[in-house]
């Protein structure tokens, strides 16, 4: 496959095989969905809209998108992840599955009314090229929703230094065998994610939560989500981060206009239109 890091793909296959999202409650799934798709104007899609999920993983987003549209193609470079998605989306007749990377997508150019790729393109060797490939598949007037890890834009210096330390740990853990990286990620979920997130929730309830409290995003998330994201964060070999300006530049270079960024976390989530 083109534009993939094979070891990163294998890691995601392991992740989604372990965390098939079957323990995620409907309420939490809907909350997460709104955080990503809140800026996406479903109302602007034509009747019977044709779309694609580039990097579908477990299929958790497709589960909620597919009932709203005419057809949805789910693509993933990991055969293991795609097998999980097939199981989770078995009851949806308008979904098709493709074992393919973004650059090998078996989708005709100019055929999609919309596409989305959430938490995927910062894990491929050529992010800008991947965005350009997706742009080719979208019709004039079509929509693209993307989520790319932010480069800690606006965070204080101490926060960025703390992240750098965690990234050193990630680079080391991600090189370990799958079993070892899973075990260490779960230990981090229990010893770091859980206490910091629940402390953030307690502080938030009394109105004294500092704006840059580490892992405050997880204050109302389940431990299952923390465990999933800890493996996602520390078990992934290839990770890149972008400023809001860089995301805007890549989308604009690919031909997209009318960029609209989500104001909340996670960052950066942006919807754009192909003119």
Describe the structure.
The protein is of the alpha/beta class. The protein folds into 2 domains: 6-151 and 241-273, Vaccinia Virus protein VP39 (Rossmann fold); 157-234. The protein contains 9 helices and 7 strands; from the N terminus they run ααβαβαββαβααααββ. α5 (127-137) links the parallel β4 (112-118) and β5 (138-147). The two termini are 29 Å apart. 41% of the residues are buried. The mean pLDDT is 97.
Q: Give the class from helix and strand content and strand pairing.
A: alpha/beta
- Return the string of H and E elements: HHEHEHEEHEHHHHEE
Q: Biggest β-sheet: count, sense, barrel?
A: 7 strands, mixed
Question: Which percent range describes the beta-strand content?
Answer: 15-25%
Low-confidence stretches: none
Number of helices, where a helix is a run of at least 4 consecutive DSSP H or I residues: 9
